[in-house]
Task: inverse folding
């Protein structure tokens, strides 16, 4: 699976890329939403892991733009702002999975598996 990771924190992007690559995925990481959208314009992806709160564009806005470019792309939203309101907004927008920060590599991998609809992934 090809995955795009977008978070304004470089350490989180690096960790996500390393974890997901170790699971056999092709992963492209970005700390700027505009660069990630540019990549999606040029290259397809199966799934995006995106932070809810970024300086230039929030995660929900990013997702809407990503869906305009790549209808059907699956989404894992990562957030330290795991309020009921944020989770409700994400679910209502069509996000497949929300993973709360701080998360472990196993929690990230499980969230991606759930969003991708992989058999055996916990609901």
Result:
């Amino acid at each position: 699976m090809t995955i795009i990771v977008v978070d304004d924190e470089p350490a989180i992007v690096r960790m996500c890329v390393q974890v997901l690559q170790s699971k056999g995925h092709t992963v492209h990481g970005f700390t700027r939403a505009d660069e990630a959208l540019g990549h999606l314009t040029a290259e397809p992806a199966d799934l995006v892991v995106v932070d809810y709160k970024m300086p230039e564009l929030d995660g929900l806005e990013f997702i809407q733009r990503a869906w305009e470019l790549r209808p059907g792309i699956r989404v894992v939203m990562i957030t330290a702002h795991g309020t009921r309101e944020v989770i409700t907004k994400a679910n209502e927008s069509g996000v497949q999975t929300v993973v709360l920060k701080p998360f472990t590599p196993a929690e990230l991998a499980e969230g991606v598996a759930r969003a991708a609809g992989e058999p055996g992934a916990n609901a």
About this structure: The two ends are 20 Å apart (CA to CA). Strands lie at 2-6, 26-30, 47-51, 74-79, 97-100.
